[in-house]
């Protein structure tokens, strides 16, 4: 059951725009009127900020925002929610998923992980600077490297499987080529690619080994050329730390989405560096974003204990996945291969499995002994791996 | 000032507060009772099992989840056990628990200073010498060394507090001692117990913060701004631009988009191993990796499901190495294989190294676009003109238009070819249509 309760004092016709909205009391020349929230905000700003240039701009901005939202209301006369349309879909049966592998070897909190395209290898990074490459099927450790910094919050596997990228509090993203030669020291061939002015929160290779996309606590994302370390494109627009990003699986593949501490999720065009769309409905930091397999939508997990689904073509949020008993933030989300299930790891040590179409929770998975910090479904969809602050990674199937 | 942002980073604490407050509701809350403890009677106690029961009723959750949520409430110091106050664990039996006083709620996020901790430990030591356990003894020793100059103050405060407490009833004294102990168990957890207050590296809400390494190795930003400090003119200009773009954007009705999700998910359901299983078996469950061998990237005979996926979209066909090879072979029979080769070369350019851009653009031009080239691709004249113009200043996206044109052409061709051969397309993917021979039937 998706609990959504709205607290509304009075519902009626606004005294200014005459639209049917939830009303708030507003005092104008010691007379009490009832305005809708949009008119009320505009009224307050008019009286308070009229003399400042910035104030006028804020006023104009709100008027546009209201134009936009009213035209949008007109377009979808009834708010179509995914759950109403999905009434026709059959409910899922009993859902059983268990831990099939536990990877122990990190001496400290596991912060991030990524799968290799061969569907069995993974790279994981932890708070003490260790980055380990595992064959998770056999639970053997294949490579290990210690970064010169702590809190390695981002790591990624190259599409070819021949290199890994990682970064964290050192404000850099470094690429390590993987070699099976026992005599070679992995750290010796390290290449410093990205340079930010604050911690690195996420990184991802684009379709090849030669380009890396990074997100940082300095509020920007950037696209880098691995070979030369050259900055190819930077993306400015977030008002606070950027915490996550995901590349779009589209045919002409040129966009990505990022989420940050300003509660906004923004979709960017990689070629021009412009923000194409922005969504701001979360109530707290967005910790993770992931595209729906078709590329037409994306899900986000936030500290406000909800996951939300945003549609790119409808340009709005279409579903909220929340439950009153879930009060801890979601740290990472990922879809199953068909997009029917959404796996979300939470800071209350659990993983919740949501039915994307029905909006209800399918199952809750216990097992970790500290918060789940990262979660990724394997490339062929046979399992998913979760990393936690309890120093372990678990593969569930 | 650090507390301002830290509070914003922990919204779960205020939610816990609300849960605990509703638990204490006289009508709808948990059943309270009085408990005899030694020779005193303590009022307003709840049994562990009642707590779990109440959580199950209120949130419609399973017993396991209710126990887990209750344990988290205890671990965060909102409830404490009276009998064994050292152990912050929820037992689903008649173990008595009490609600922590709001003064000590974790959500206040008071910095639990060393001085406070020293006073607390000193009190414990004075009240009953030898009451300090292992890690507390260590801390006590460390603090004694560290704030030696203020140690008289510490001892004096401790004695004062003990004296004031003696004037209270025995029951109240016991309760206050437990409350304080719980507070310190949360703020100074014993070794081996993870701290519930740890949040990871500090996140700021100001733009372009300059990172400075603090002694602990965590970046601390300059003073966090007020709510409107960074919302200057540039910010509003950008927001207005976004809104203007949004107004001009053509939006699809959400009901149409939602139908698309239904279609997509039902089409792919059988291909999703987590939803429908996979044959011969999920490697993670059976410990047998035959499934991966059968679905290797360049396997000789692709599985039936894999071939079906090629029909879902052209992108799926091209992304699969075997599918792409099949398509290349098909184009070869139509004498138009150069289209796919051109597309592949463009992809390499787009995702290749920056240093190779010039060389690659040259190579592509010589091979595919130059008049009389060996593998000349047929692009419409307007796109060709634009592309040739752009070649004067080559960059990695200079062939995007041409690439898109060829991609759309190939897509149309693939659909026509599929129809001609009677291979099921996206519309009939659900039906049990027999596939061409040569594919492995799973």
TrEMBL record, chain A:
Respond yes or no to whether keyword Magnesium is given for this record: no
Ranges for the WD repeats: 103-135, 193-234, 235-278, 279-320, 332-364, 365-397
GO terms under biological process: signal transduction
- Keywords per UniProt: Repeat, Transducer, WD repeat
> Which superkingdom, per the lineage?
Eukaryota
- Xref: SMART domains: WD40 (SM00320)
Q: Which family does it belong to?
A: Belongs to the WD repeat G protein beta family.
Question: Which PANTHER family does this UniProt record tie to the protein?
Answer: GUANINE NUCLEOTIDE-BINDING PROTEIN BETA G PROTEIN BETA
Q: What does this protein do?
A: Enhances GTPase-activating protein (GAP) activity of regulator of G protein signaling (RGS) proteins, such as RGS7 and RGS9, hence involved in the termination of the signaling initiated by the G protein coupled receptors (GPCRs) by accelerating the GTP hydrolysis on the G-alpha subunits, thereby promoting their inactivation. Increases RGS7 GTPase-activating protein (GAP) activity, thereby regulating mood and cognition. Increases RGS9 GTPase-activating protein (GAP) activity, hence contributes to the deactivation of G protein signaling initiated by D(2) dopamine receptors.
Assembly and interaction partners: Component of a complex composed of RGS9 (isoform RGS9-1), GNB5 and RGS9BP; within this complex, the presence of GNB5 stabilizes both itself and RGS9 and increases RGS9 GTPase-activating protein (GAP) activity. Interacts with RGS7, forming the RGS7-GNB5 complex; within this complex, the presence of GNB5 increases RGS7 GTPase-activating protein (GAP) activity. Interacts with GPR158; promotes the GTPase activator activity of the RGS7-GNB5 complex in absence of glycine, in contrast GTPase activator activity of the RGS7-GNB5 complex is inhibited in presence of glycine. Interacts with RGS6.
Q: Kindly provide the name given to this protein in its UniProt entry.
A: Guanine nucleotide-binding protein subunit beta-5
Automatic annotation (TrEMBL), chain B:
Q: Which GO terms describe its molecular function?
A: GTPase activator activity
Q: Which SMART domains match?
A: DEP (SM00049), G_gamma (SM01224), GGL (SM00224), RGS (SM00315)
Residue stretches making up the DEP domain: 26-101
Keywords for this protein: Signal transduction inhibitor
Origin: domain of life: Eukaryota
What GO terms describe the biological role, i.e. biological process, of this protein? G protein-coupled receptor signaling pathway; intracellular signal transduction; negative regulation of signal transduction; regulation of G protein-coupled receptor signaling pathway
Bias (Polar residues) ranges: 202-221
Pfam families, per this entry?
A: DEP, G-gamma, RGS, RGS_DHEX
Which InterPro entries does the record cross-reference, listed alphabetically?
DEP_dom, G-protein_gamma-like_dom, GGL_sf, RGS, RGS6/7/9/11, RGS6/7/9/11_DHEX_sf, RGS_DHEX, RGS_sf
Spell out the CDD domains in the cross-references: DEP_RGS7-like, GGL
Q: What residue spans carry the region label Disordered? A: 195-224
One Gene Ontology term, aspect cellular component? neuron projection
Domain RGS per the UniProt entry, residue ranges: 313-411
Query: What's the protein name?
Result: Regulator of g-protein signaling 11
